[in-house]
Protein 1
Amino acid sequence: MKGSKQVERRRIMAVHLPESLMSKRIQNLVGRFVDEDGELGFVFQSTRYGRGVMGLELAEPRLRNLLAWLAEKQETLLLTGRRSREDPELFWVWGLDPGGPGSSMPAIFAKEKKTELSLAKLNAMLRLLGIEPTEQDLTVQDSSVEFQTEEELKLLMRVCGEGYPPEIRAWAERTLDQCEKIWSGTDRDKQHAIRALTYILNINWSIRTLDLPSLEEARQIMDSTFYGLEPVKQRILEVLAQMKRTGTMPSWGLLLNGPAGVGKTSVAKAVARILNLPMTVLDMSTIRDIEDLTGSSRIYSNGRPGRIIQQLYAAKSANQVMVINELDKSNTNNGRGNPADALLTLLDGSGFTDTFMDVAIPTRGIFFVATCNELGDISGPIRDRFLTINIPGYSGEEKKEIFSRYTLPKLTKRMGIGPEEFTMTPQALEIFCTRYATQPGVRDLEQYGEKLLSRFLYRRESGEENFCCDLDMLHSVLGPERCVERVMALFPGMVKTACRGERGVHCFPIQASARPGRGEMTLIGVHSKAVRDSCQVAYEFVCRVLRGSARPRVMDVALFVPQDVDDTCGSALGVAAAAALLSALTGRELEPDCAFLGSCDLYGNTYFDDISADAYLDALEAAGVTTVYAAAGTGNKLYEYRSRRSIRVVEAANLSMLLEAAACSLPAALKKMEKEE
């Protein structure tokens, strides 16, 4: 089925063979196109069969202007194709060869060429007409070929004008008319206009029909590109199934969210390979000005196109996978415009206007794949234009497989080491992947692996023959272990929570202690006003619910928050602060594998509104948390499709009910305090 599609795509025209050739085995024809009163024909030339005029049937009507121009220039061409099996009179043409280096045209005919038309430029014209060359075509694919002069651009509009969208064609005709009115070739306005035309007219704007692989082939592509991440692969296959059914790209893109080094770029490359489209990268971390995306006006001498147009121009195609890298770094507003604002119209697919071009650019053929480290740093309107796929960090077992099957072979090949020369003991491999390479991604695997191989080469050059990487070598080369297992002792007043800071979401303990005093609270390590207010509200709630006891009035409490917390989500510590204060005042110790999330008000009503909630699960799971006590609705916000999650979420709309579910019930606490008093 797939092969038949390729053959159909190659049939750009049919030539009616004369009777003298119908019985011959024809593989190509040499001759010239003729245009007699609007009727196109082909005059073949042969040293064996002489000359003759043959009629044409165009399978691609957009070729008429190109063939008419070739007829006007009396260009000698080699037509490649095959005889029709159904009708022997027809010769199906799928390639045009104008001669030149690498051509299959006989030398005797190549000498009769009237003009110099290269294979690459003819191939570029066919692309702009929406006729993609295939591997069996004689035309070469050279993306560096461009039409830049005013005469070449006019030729493009004459020959390939039908292949441009109506708005692009109207703009190009208007701009070319303006160029004709400017006589000086050095005029700034004319130079800018020619530059704009060069960018726009050298891009293939035709919308290609998606030629998608089967789901099995797509999985093989992903397996060969990145290891593991089965839920991510499953989600991409579901998107591919939708594309195969509709035949079009979805109205939304993919947003790959995860820590650095987990393979987001590799996933984006796999998506481009699956869609069989070129890939360009737009790095938002380097963009500090909205003009970098939208371009600057042509009224300035240093006017230039924006990066969106530059990416389209680099691929020479409006059908591409555009990777928006580090999307969460785009919310930079330095007084010169927020770059994120320019992305809204780009992602909508309704058209993007570049200031330098001054024309709406269609973006229907672009499939956007964005990457980010912090989902909460992306504005809601932009997030709504993507389907978010969360990419978790790799476990120690997965890192062992990645290092053994991918990273180590790549390093040994790069450093000229044989596959059997370098070996590691199982214990050394285990410690290397779990105690040294502790980042969520796999970049540190390559960094530390290269250090080990460098030491290996040094010892080999020193004359050592038998060599195996063991624990002693790990410690001598890499130093002390980066990760040391330790068990933190829990006391009354210690409660685990998770919150977002400058470096992402982290799980950490909040510590509270009580001592005789005058009923005052001291905050330690709290620098944010939002965190300070949240802790004060939690303390007032605890004092209110314990108003039947004298303890809050005769005990001072200290509350320690040992983690920098983002001011925008500092209120999310309220539930954990209340649990820690109540635990310290009552002396009840909480379970070490539980955590508290959310904020509360003076009456104990709970809330959880952190928009980066998807990142919490990784932090909680890494800290060994199995049960989360949180505000009502938190379970939905922490939803994750990965089946390996084993975290239970207990929800309650009021803090009193939540603490009771956590075996820290207020009635029991009051009863215990009454006995002690």
Protein 2
Amino acid sequence: MSIRLRELIRNVRSCKTQADERACIHKECASIRTAFKDENNELRHRNVAKLLFIHMLGYPTHWGQMECLKLIAGSKADPHPLPYSARRPAVLMLVENSLKNDLQSSNQYIAGLACCAIGNISSAEICRDLSPEVEKLMVGSNPFVSKKASLCCIRILRKCPELCDTFLERIGTLLGSRNHAVLLTCLKLMREMCITEPAMIEQLRRHTPTLIAALKNLVLSGYAPEHDVHGIVDPFLQVEILTMLRVLGRGHSETSDQMNDILAQVATNTESAKNAGNAILYECVLTIMAIEVESGLRVLAVNILGRFLINRDNNIRYVALNTLHKVIAQDTQAVQRHRNTIVDCLKDNDSSIRQRALELVYALVNEANVLVKELLSYLLACDVEFKDELTQRICTVVEKFSTDKEWHVDTIIQTLSASTSFESEETVCSMIALITSTPELQAYATHKLYAKLADQTNQPVLLQLAVWCVGEYGEMLIGGVPAGVEAEAPDPQTVVELLTSVMRSPVADVTTKEYTINAFVKLTTRFANAPDSLALIHKQLAAYSCSMSLELQQRSVEYSSLLKLDAIRAGVLERMPAFAKKDRQAAAAAAAALAMDGDGPSRGSASELMAAPAAWNKNGLQIEFACTKDASNPSVTAIEASFTSAQPTPLTGFNFQVAVPKYMKLQMSPASSSTVPPSNSGKVTQTFKVANSMHGQKPVLLRIKIDYSAGGQAVSEQGQ
């Protein structure tokens, strides 16, 4: 005996184990098969409903598809709420005929169900065959059916894009409807047409006056209880109209001119006390910024975003900051008027708002408005995880927009002092380039940095800068105090002892000690008249000639030998020339790429990195890295590798592989060719990106592997 669907559900839920459930389902399936064999038409709809439930549980029900079709084709009206579920090609024609009959039904719910079935489960062939019937329903007198037909057309376009022209003529009729649901679905259909076929935008622009009139009626109409949302008349329809106007007006001045008045009315008449009004205003701002409107309207849009910034809702403030960051390139002056409000957002309790405000403040900085004071205030109060990134940004801003060199040095020192863990070879190179290229700044910078060194600073960048300046301009340090410096000039012995303490400091890394070894040997010519200091320098160099660090050991031994060559010592240890801008970029590229080995130079001082931008040069194969930083995310480095060969024969089967540490992520693109031309007659390029999750704390490190065949001999090389 057949049980009801409700009883089957109850029996399944009462099963305590999966085996009990399977037994219950198998027993019911056997009962349903028996009923189908007996051609019991009275209970067919009940059995099909149970099959659908069993199918939802994950059990096979394909053996009942024909019964579904018989039920759909039957004369009873009750089965129509069941889905159309035939799949075999032999029955698709019957399904199509059943759908067509339902589309012509006088019952709006049956016609609506047929539209849902066509849109959701029908094939492209059925959609093409039934699209004329759906098109007729779009312009019918029943708003419910018109709405369902319009939604069905959206799904049909996704399956059959070539039918876009078919529905174009019906848009005008749908836009003339007074039913808001029909208007809303019509606008959705228009957007889908524009996405499917961008050429449709030009033909749909003729409906712009109709859309403007509809939006004006919504804005100026009184209270409508059936469409009211917190005092706003149908905000969903208003938002959709504004979105469509943005699509139609983008890049078309004539259409944009028609929208000026209505956009001004929406911006000024919409109440912003509720979220519904804020949603409309936000969409209005996006539309104003996307189309070609007069400057006054753009200022009005930016002012709306400025009001959003003082809203209590964190989501609204975040949206405002995000949008201002996007539109700042279009009207920087209008955004600058809200600078103080944006800076106040740096004090917000929400970290995401602080981060967005920081990015916007960074974008607001220009020659006339260097917001370093505000950024420094935020640096002192921000979370530890943001300090390194913010420090890098402040250093970049100061370098880019500084007009006073002494202020530049003071600000960099103040910034680095506030971020004790920040490390950046790029910042070291930039500051060294500034100091070497500005003779009048050298004494001032050396005394300022020495003061920080004497205060026992632990900041790695400050340590390296101070040690480098002391070694390069030691005679200026002991010769007198420049204007603007309050401290007294130290004596040579004090300077050397201070550098000695840096070598013993547990916070000084190997790179800082390498800088200090360089400073020691430089001071042998700067402090030539201080024998006690020279003796201490020789002692330090001898002490590190047995260092566990191979780099420190090598430098100490080489420098000790150099000091014995009086004929060339003075020339080798003379001041470094001013860095050209081109050299600075090469240094940044080399520092961001990798620490080189093989025949390339070892990881060393800034001057070595500048002199060796090539990452690999061995057996005639040369690899150069061109590195660029992502402006929006400094932790991401894009690297373009160029491969050239000086060998007389081409390198075939060329394969370049890269591995990175766990704190980094790698994304590689394929190489332009698998064959490197001979005799430097051409090059092969390959790009890849690395994301450093510990940016500012750990450097970018790469391990490379190169495989190729040269003259029939396979070659495999590795390096880091």
Protein 3
Amino acid sequence: MINEKVFEGKYEIIKPLGSGGMGTVYLARNVKLDSYWAIKAVNKKNSEKVDLLAEPNIMKNLNHPGIARVFDIVEDDDNIYIIEDYIEGVSIEDELKQIKRIQEKNVINWAKQITESLIYLHNSKPNPIIYRDMKPSNLILNKEGKVVIVDFGIAREYKKDSQSDTTYIGTRGYAAPEQYGTSQTDARTDIYSLGVTLYHLATGKGPNDPPYDLRPIRELDPKLSVGLEYIIAKCTKADPNSRYQSAFDLLHDLNNIYKFDKAYKRRHLIQNTLTVFLIVLIVGFSYLTWAGFKQIAQEKLDEYNSMVNQGIELMHAKQYPDALNVFEQAIAKMPTRIEGYKETSHTYLNKGDYDGCINYLNKTVFPNVQNATYDAEIYYILGTAYFENHDYKNATDNLTKAAELNLSSVTYRRDRAVSLARSGELDESMAQLNELKNKGLGEDVTWYVSGELARAQKNFAEAESDFTKCLNITQSEDLKRKAFISLAENYKDSKSILGDLAVQKEIAILERAKSDLKDKSDIAITEMLGAAYYDNAVNTSGNRNELFNKALTNFNLLLTQGFSSRSYIYRNVAIIYQQIGNFTEAEKTLLQMRKLFSEEYTCYMQLAFLYADIENRKANELRNYQRTYDNYLQAVKYAPQGENTPSIQPLANLISELKSKNWIT
């Protein structure tokens, strides 16, 4: 119940914010996230004629800075509770009460912002969304001075085949005439209500104030511009066919409102009356320019989309540098669209450059792309990058944001539950698992999450059983891949119980993954398989070279597929070559590593060991450890703690020994 101090165990009710036609709104604080939300409580009995889930069902997929977002929906016998953005600021209705009327420059500025939000709504897929309740009380001016539309209680989707929709719904005076008839409302309905709202802002008189009609605004205040009068009059025509036919058209006039001014028209007339022929040309050109404006914009968008699709194809082909280059060109063409940024971060993620992905999103996308903070997929990519970097706290934080922005995504909830388990928050992870089960969101998903919980509790046999059950029933390629990886990691974790059998089972499941998955060269599985073969080789007395060569095959595959952002892959390859006595290839690999990662101290450390190994195989009189010493000095130079870096100590001990025997002076 909303009258409880803590609603649903996590929302602390602070105070009522107000009441509207669809219910009462409360300010609440999420006690777990320490964030503030608005909770709308709608009584089912008082709203029998309205689809109470219309608002959340419509809003849960909306993603625009000018529109409040829905994050959660709770239902009991009496009410539906909608948890949505709390927009800190002041309603434009309250602003009107304080200052009576709004300066024209602010009216025009706010009108542009609201119109851009309507353009987004009216162009939503699969169906346009008609707001139907535009009025000052549903517009919030936030702390940044931006207008945000709230309360989608009577919004609906426009469907071509529908001849009518809900009748007698709206706010009297602001609602368009067709909202009280039997015809279907459309985008022009919102344009009418916006016109009435602008009338109220500019004149200080609402539609329900004397003289109870919408008169030309310059009759009330001659100082108001001709352009604003024209725009409001056209928006509020009784016949929808006489209004602006789209929010695009309305925004065009708002952006060119100065052209309605008499002085402008006079200058324009003088400039264009040189000859009748020139007038015809200019009129014709103006018409063609306006007629072609949308075509040019569409062509630019088509080019942008084509470039993004080309980049995606290159990414899937593992041609990562080319993909990044194409996305960069797409972003340069349309820097305000988010798709290019999103696919760039996808590319970093796919090529295993998790640090690059994290830095790109945090330092480039979030600070510069306005809609990024409203995009669930952006947070999911970031959360996944943190997860792959084993930073489970940051992974959980971002996967939580993704799940809150997209309540319908099972994937986001699933991965959040797994990240919670990995970060040790077992009770919260179990709660998420139970929620997934209660909602019937797939046995394969719940077996996978259950396996992760068992693994986190070191119940390795139970985890093995759960992951296997998931693999046996899932049809999802993504989930199958995750279950293979988790099962392989589970075998690795259980080495203290299984002994040498652990790595053999790890190799077997990874080989099965390469066979069963569509992507035969998955980066994560290839890397794990290379490491498993190497571990098996160093811990066995037989067929070591065969196992080393299998490890080499997998690690070299990573390098040929563009997975070259991780320096340790080169070092792993060099170590294996050194183990099997192929010093030429070991040196070649390390020199390539040095070229790419000139300040990576482990490269110089491994070169020092390699050169020492080479010299040790020579006759005493032919030995020269100078290259060993030179690379040791470089390793110390770039190591985070110099010669005190723990991983350098074995090499430091070798250098001390060589000095004591006068091999190095």
